Amino acid sequence: MRKVLESILVPVLAVLIALLISAFVIVAIGKNPLQAYAVLVRGAFGSKQAIIDTLIKTTPLILTGLAVGFGFRAGVFNIGAEGQMAMGALIAASIASNFGNIPPVVAIPLTLVIGMGAGAGWAAIAGFLKAKTGAHEVVTTIMLNWITTFVASFMVTGPLATGSGTPKSPEIAASAQLPILMKVGAMELSAGIIISLLAAVFMYVFLNKTTVGYEVKAVGFNPYAAEYGGISVSKNVVLAMAISGALAGLAGVTELMGVHHRFLGELSGGKGFDGISIALIGQNNPIGIIFAALLIGALRTGSNEMQFLGVSKYIVIIVQGIVIFLVAADRIVRTIYLRKKVKS
Amino acid sequence: MKKVLALLLMTLVLTAGFAFKAIMVTDTGGLGDKSFNDGTWAGIQRAAKELGVEAKVIMSNEQSDYIPNLTKAAEEVLKEKDGGIVFAVGFMMQDALEKVARQYPTVYFAGIDISFDKELPNVINFLFKEQESAFLVGYIAAAMTRTGKVGFVGGIPIPPVERFRYGYEAGIKAYMDLKGKKVTVIRGYTNEFSDPKKGKDLANSQFSQGVDIIFAAAGACGNGVIEAAKERTEKLAGKGYENIKKYALSGKPVYYAIGVDVDQDYMAPGVVLTSAMKGIDTAGYYGVMWAYKGQFKGGLKVLGLKENGVRMSEMKYTKEIIDKLAPGAIKELEYLKSLIIEGKVIVPDSEEALKAFTVKGVKLPR
Amino acid sequence: MAPEVNEIKTAHHLYAVEMIDITKRFPGVLANDRVTLRVKAGEIHAIVGENGAGKSTLMNQLYGLYHPDSGEIRIFGEQKRFHGPRDAIRAGIGMVHQHFMLVDTLTVAENVVLGSEPVKGLNFDLNRAREEVRKLSEAYGLYVDIDAKIEDIPVGMQQRVEIIKTLYRGANIIILDEPTAVLTPQEVEELFEIMRNLKKSGKTILFISHKLNEVMEISDRITVMRGGRVTAELITKETNEREIARAMVGRDVVLKLDKPPHKAKDVVLEVRNLWVKDNRHLNAVRGVSFQVRAGEVVGIAGVAGNGQTELVEAITGLRKVENGEIIFLGKNVAGAHPRQLREMGMSHIAEDRLKYALIKPFPAYYNAILGRHYKTPFASGAFLNHREIKRFTAELMEEFDVRPRIIEHLGGNFSGGNQQKLVVGREIKAHPKFMVVAQPTRGLDVGAIEFIHRQILRMREQDVAILLISMELEEIFSLSDRILVMYEGQIMGEVRPEETTVEEVGLMMAGKRLEEIRGGKK
C-alpha cells in the first residue's frame, strides 16, 4: 500500500515542483503565474469544448504511452512508436478508403486490426533483428522511424496524394470512421478515447493475468532466468516488440479514424516520442499512463489558451521537461521525501 | 473560479482599446520562423497599431491544434462587440480553416497561402505567385554561380513551395537560354518547416556536391541554410560584412544563400544574395484593415509582381557584388520583370509548364 | 596517510575496536540488539552467524555506512562518530566488501589509488602509484600484477587488490566480509597466508564468515551472532565446530550427514563425447562422457573454470552443443530447448542463482512457478491461476522453510539462503527424473547447507538421478556415489568417495589423470 502511495506521490510531487519552477520563469517574463495557471486549467477543462480538445489530444498519447510502457515492461526500449504509429495510420488509410461498401460493424474493427497489424509488423522487424543478430532496438527503431517519415511523405505527395491543400491521402470510407461521442463546433470527440482506455485494460490484464504476459515480463527482467525457465527469449522479444508496435499502430489508426479521417504527413507529430515521456511519468503502469497522458494532453490544450495572456506555449514544454526529469531521476524526489520522513 | 475567470476576461477587455480583435493562429512553424508567420504577424501588428486595436497570436504545437486554436480564436472574436478577424497562416491549415470557418459564418477569417475548392463568403484567402519572385532570384543565382551548380532546399513539397521551385528553375532556364551558360539544379526537401538543423544538414550536403548558391523555400528550416552558407563563407573571407564584401569583390568564390518570404538579406549580410519575398505582411495588413473598416469581401486574392504581392529584395548588401561579378544582370532583371508584369512572359506554376517554358523569343535590350 | 600515529596508539590500547551496546533498527527489523564487540589489537577476530544474523549491519556501522541508533564505537580507545566511510578510513579502518568495488577497465595500480586521499594534482602520477602499490604488495606478500587490467585477472587477485587498496589508504583495521565465498580452495589458502602476514605486521583483522572450518583454521577469537544479538564469544583454541554451530543456529547441527546406501537403477542420462565452447569460442568441454543412473548422485569436482559451467549449460539446454550426444531417457537431447527438457523431467538448480534461477523483481509466488508457469494447475488456458499459484507457493515455502514466509516478497529481497531454498524447493517440487545441481550451497550458512544436503539425499532415495557440481570438496565427498574430476574440459578420472582420498582428487583437480596417479603409486 505504501508502495502504491509512493508511486503516486513521486509524479504528483514532480508536477508540483515543475509548476513551481515554471512559475518563476513566468514571473521572470513579467506575468502573473497564478493567473497563467488559472487560464491553463480553464483552457484544458474550463468548457465542454476545452474538455473535448483535451480528450482528443489525450487519446493518442495514452496509446503511445502504453506502447512504450509495454516495451519497457518487456525489457525493450521501443523508441520507434512514432514510426509505428505513422505506419499503422498510413497502411490503414490506404486500404480503408475503399471500404465504402462494407458496413461499419465490419469496417471499423477491420481498419483497427489493419492499423495494429501494420504497427506490429513494423516493430517486429526491430524485434526480429534484435533476437537474431543482437542489433539494439533503439538503433533499429530509429532507423525505421526515418524510413517511415520518407515513405509517408512520398505517399502523400505521390501515389496517395489527393486534392489541394495539405499533402494528404483521400478520406477513408465513412463506414470506417469512428463514431462521434460528442461534438462542439468543428471539434469532434470520437470513440478513440474508449479504445485507448480498453487498450490500457488490455495491457493490465495481459501483463498481470496471462501466461504470455508472465513470460514477456520474465524476459524483460532477466532473460537468462527466463531461458533457464524454458521461456524462449528470442520469441518473446519479437512478441514484445510486436505488441508494443500494435499499440503504437492503434494510436495511429484511431487518430486516422477518429480525428483526421485521412492520412496527413504530420499525423504522428512527435506523439510516438511523447509516449516515452508518458511511460516514464506513468511509471509503465497502465493506470499511471492514462493519467500521465491526460496531464500532457491537458497541459498542451491549456497552453494554447495561456498564449492569450502572452505566456508562451514553451512554458508548458518546460513544465513537461521538468516533470520528466524529476520522474526519471525520481531518486532525487525520493531522497527528498525520505529525508523528510527520517527527520520527522 | 468563476470570479477569477470574470476578472481575467475583464482585464483582457480593458487592455483592448476598441472592441475589435485580430487573432493570428500560426502553423507548427510558429513565431520566430523569420518567414511567413513572422511576416503575417508584422502586417497584422502594423494595422493593429494604426487602428489602435488588439492583436493576439496563438501558436500551434501540432497539426491537431489547428482546429481547436482556430475555434478558440473565433470564440474570442465573437465575444467582441465590434468583431474582428482570425488569420490562419500557412498552407497546412487549409482543411482546418475550412471546417472552422463553416462553423462560424459571422466571423471573418483570412487564410495565408490557402485556397478552397469553393470559396466562403466569410473567408478571404491570399495566394501568391511565388514563381514570379522566384524567377527573378533564379536568374540572379544563374548569373552568380561559379560552379554551374545551384541548389534548392524546400520544406514539404506543397504547392507554394513547389511554385517557388518552378519559378526558380524557370529563372535559371531563362538565363541559360539567354546567355548560353550551363547551370544545373540540385533539389532537396527537409519534409518539414520548423527545424533549422535539417535545413543546415541538407545545405551542407548540397554545398559539398559543388553547389555554391542555395535558394531555401523551407520556412524556419531555411534559417539553417543561411547559417550553413554563412559559416562556409566566413571560413573563407573572415567574419563581418566588410570582410565578406571585400573578399567577394576580389573575385574569389564564396557561398550564397537566397532567402524567402520576407527580406532575409539582413540575416547574413553579404551572404544572403537576395530574397524572394511574398507580400504576406501586406496580406496581414489589409486583412485587418478591411475587416475593421467593413470593406471585407470573401474570396480568393492572388497576388503577383503586378499587385506588388511578391517581389525581390533590395539587395542592399549584395548589389555591388552582383554588379561587379555579373555586370548587367540587374538591369536585365528589371526588363524581365516588366515583361512579366505586362504578361509577355508567363512564369510557370506547374511541372508541365516548367518543362515547356522558354524565353527564346525574348531579346534583351542592349 | 597517517599510519604512524595509529601505530603509536596500538601500543597503548588492548582493543583496536570496541563496539559497545550497539542497537540498529530498520523498518520492521531489529538488526542489531545491544551488540557488544571487542577486537584486540593485532588479532584475527572472526564474526560468524547465519545470513541475516546482523553481521553485515554491524560491520557497516563500523565502516561508517550506517549510524547506530544507540551505543558507541571506540577505535584504539578513542570514541568515534563516523559520518561516512571517509571518517572510518581516516580512523584507519579498511573494508573489503563481498562484491568488489573495482573498475574493470583500469589497471591494478590505477584501481588502488583511485579516489584515495590525499588528492594528487591534476596530473595523475602513474609511476608513483605503481611504485607505492609494488611496495605494499611486497611488504605483505600480496602478489599482484600491477599493470594488468582488473577484468583480466582472477578473482583471488582482485581480492588482493582490494586489500592493497585498504592498506594504501592507511588501514590498521581491516574488515573482510565473506572473503572466501568467491575463492577456490587454493586461493583460500593463499588468502589465509596473507592474513597471517598482515597480522604479523600488526594489523587487526575482522573476518566475517560462516564457514566453520575456515574460522577454526585462521581466527584467534570468535564472536557468534544470531538474530541480531551476540550469542557467544569464544577463543578459537578452546572451542570446536560443534559449539560454534550451536551458537549460530541455536540448536545442534549435524555437520556431516549420513548417507544411507542406495542402489542405483537404470541409466537416466548419458553424455557421449561432448564438446562445448565457452563465451570466447574456445573449447571448454572437450570430449566428456559419463552416465548418471536413477537413485545415484554423481559429483563433478574441479577448480572453477575447468568447463563445469559449460557442461551444465549444455546439458540443461542453455548452451550450444558443438559435438557429441546427450542421451536423456533414451533420446538425444543435444540442442533441445530448456522447456523441452523440463517437460521431459529435468530440473536444474543453477550455479548462479541471481543470474539464472531467480527473477529478482518477481514476487516469490512468480519465482516458485518459473518453468511450469504455463501448465496446469498454475495456468488455465492463457491465464494464470493466481489462487493456485499462491497456494502452491505458500506450501513450498512452508515445506522448504523459506523465510520470511511472505509469498509477495520479491525474489531479490530474500537472503541468499532463502533464495536458494526457494529455488531448490521449486526444482524439487517439479518432481524431476533427473536433476542438475550446481554449487547448491555457495554462500550459504551451515543451517541452510544442512537443509539442502538433506533434500538432495532425499531425492536420491526417491530414485532421482542427480548430477552434482561443486567447488566444495567436502560437499562432493559427503553426497556423491561416484566422483568425476574435471580439468581443462576433460575428465581426469572417476572414483568412489569411499575408495579415494582428498589428496588423490586434489591431484586430479590439478591435472593428473587417475591412471597416472595410481600407476605412479604402483
TrEMBL record, chain A:
Keywords annotated in UniProt: Cell membrane, Membrane, Transmembrane, Transmembrane helix
Residue stretches spanning the membrane: 7-30, 50-72, 84-100, 106-129, 141-161, 189-207, 237-256, 276-299, 311-329
GO cellular component: plasma membrane
Membrane topology: Multi-pass membrane protein
Signal peptide stretch: none
Keyword Nucleus: no
Localization per Swiss-Prot or TrEMBL: Cell membrane
GO molecular function, one term: transmembrane transporter activity
Keyword S-adenosyl-L-methionine attributed: no
Annotated protein name in UniProt: ABC transporter permease
From TrEMBL, chain B:
Cited Pfam families: Bmp (PF02608)
Topological category with respect to the lipid bilayer: Lipid-anchor
Record bears the keyword Cell membrane: yes
Name recorded for this polypeptide: BMP family ABC transporter substrate-binding protein
PANTHER family, sorted: ABC TRANSPORTER GUANOSINE-BINDING PROTEIN NUPN, TRANSCRIPTIONAL ACTIVATOR PROTEIN MED
InterPro entries: BMP_lipoprotein, Peripla_BP_I, PnrA-like
Nucleotide-binding keyword on record: no
A single GO cellular-component term on record: plasma membrane
Residue ranges occupied by any ABC transporter substrate-binding protein PnrA-like domain in the UniProt entry: 21-349
Source taxon at top rank: Bacteria
Subcellular location field: Cell membrane
Residues making up the signal peptide according to the UniProt record: 1-21
Keywords associated with the record: Cell membrane, Lipoprotein, Membrane, Signal
Family to which this protein belongs: Belongs to the BMP lipoprotein family.
